[in-house]
Write a structure and sequence with these properties.
By secondary structure, the chain is of the alpha/beta class. 32% of the residues lie in helices and 17% in strands. It has helices at residues 28-43, 58-65, 79-90, 132-147, 151-166, 181-186, 214-217, 260-270, 287-296, 305-310, 327-330, 338-352; strands at residues 9-16, 52-54, 71-73, 96-103, 189-191, 194-195, 205-213, 225-234, 279-281, 365-372, 377-384. The strands form 2 sheets. It has a 9-stranded mixed β-sheet, sandwiched between helices. It has a two-stranded antiparallel sheet with strand order 5-6. Helix 5 (151-166) packs across helix 9 (287-296). The longest helix has 16 residues, at 28-43.
């Protein structure tokens, strides 16, 4: 018996719909269906091949396709949902699992600049103005105070990722650059230390992935990409409490290093380490999160993330090219849980060698993440070309 829990699980289909600030004529249901059909087409599968769905809205696909009865999980938040689907396949509960999600139309009836899920009416948000940028800013400022991280490092991250999106024709902000670090520093302040260009955009779109058991993956239209490792870290409910870097957890951990445990578990599962990673498809709600994740995931020591990013390691052609499609800063920050699986989709495309822009040459291993310190969770997935 294979010892790796996901030895028989592969990702065989991925799809992003068009992403835009506003997708006229679309709603969450239509864009999710479009994403689902696109991922199935990418895999070379039909709706009838699906015997498992994961995500809060995929039951609608199940009903419309008349595909039931089948296995279903309502887990809907990116990497944890994909891990649910992978575990269902590993346990023999399904052989082909579809994950699809999307947000458009009435989902964003409020067209204000701040995404609706970041403005819950709880006691810390409504009276005191605690919004997402402020939550992540608290974590960034604490790190800067302790480690002396300069604002120029955050600006370099933002400029790098936005420039990746600038050259990506599929990005919402395609052609909006190029940017320099000084451009970022010169943009207006939103929540100290974040300037406007340090912050994610707000948009609409859909995304979907298809997972399959190894024997089914062998019949897919494209080479399978394997799940080498994956884990999740959560330390509280997202967007409800002002986050504190030093919020204590088990075994002496603190909230500021959320994701460290998940990364360690993922690397251990894969039998790999940071030096084995070729592409870092890290979640980028704000520029500082990239620096923090490099430290939390073990690519460098605490306080050395600024030096790492300023060294050119994250640039195109660098040792660890980061968030290569433009990420949340430039590619898309779609509705629902769309943004939570974009990194995995891009990781799959990197390993397939099919990125139209910023393809990492001969990429064998991609590390993908979701969430961040201000949201009090961080999820990790390692993908590879070789079966574990």
């Amino acid at each position: 018996m294979a010892s790796h829990p996901f030895h028989d699980v592969a990702i065989v289909g991925v799809h992003n719909t068009a992403q835009a600030r506003v997708l006229e004529g679309q709603d969450a249901r239509s864009i999710t269906l479009e994403a689902a059909l696109g991922a199935l087409d990418d895999a070379g599968f039909a709706a009838a091949d699906v015997d498992g769905v994961v995500g809060p809205t995929t039951a609608d696909f199940l009903y419309q396709s008349r595909g039931g009865p089948m296995w279903r999980s309502t887990s809907g938040f990116g990497i944890p949902a994909l891990l649910d689907g992978a575990m269902a396949i590993a346990c023999g509960l399904a052989s082909v699992v579809l994950y699809a999600t999307g947000g458009a139309g009435s989902y964003r009836a409020d067209r204000s600049a701040t995404a609706p899920w970041t403005r819950p009416t709880n006691e810390f948000v409504l009276p005191f103005g605690m919004f997402t940028a402020a939550e992540f800013a608290l974590m960034a400022r604490r790190h800067m105070h302790v480690h002396g991280t300069p604002p120029e490092a955050l600006a370099h991250v933002a400029a790098t990722i936005r420039n990746n999106g600038h050259v990506n024709p599929a990005a919402v902000f395609s052609g909006r650059g190029p940017y320099t670090a000084q451009d970022v520093l010169d943009s207006r302040m939103v929540a100290d230390p974040f300037h406007l260009l340090d912050c994610a955009i707000n948009s609409e779109g859909g995304a979907a992935l298809v997972l399959a058991r190894a024997d089914r993956a062998a019949t897919a239209a494209k080479a399978p990409v394997w799940i080498l490792g994956g884990a999740t870290d959560h330390v509280g409910p997202a967007y409800q409490h002002p986050p504190s870097w030093d919020l204590p957890g088990r075994d002496g951990s603190v909230a500021g290093w959320v994701g460290r445990r998940a990364a360690g578990q993922s690397f251990a599962m894969a039998g790999l380490g940071p030096d084995d990673v070729d592409a870092c498809e890290f979640y980028d709600p704000f520029s500082f999160e990239i620096i923090r994740q490099f430290e939390a995931f073990g690519f460098c020591a605490e306080g050395e993330g600024a030096d790492l990013v300023l060294s050119g390691a994250i640039d195109p052609g660098g040792r660890w090219p980061v968030t290569t499609d433009g990420g949340l800063l430039s590619f898309s920050h779609g509705g629902g849980a769309v943004q939570m699986v974009q990194r995995v989709i891009r990781g799959v495309q990197q390993l397939r060698g099919e990125c139209a822009t910023m393809q990492v040459p001969s990429a064998e291993v991609a590390m993908c993440s979701g969430g961040g310190s201000g949201a009090l969770f961080n999820d990790v997935m390692l993908l590879g070309k070789e079966r574990p």
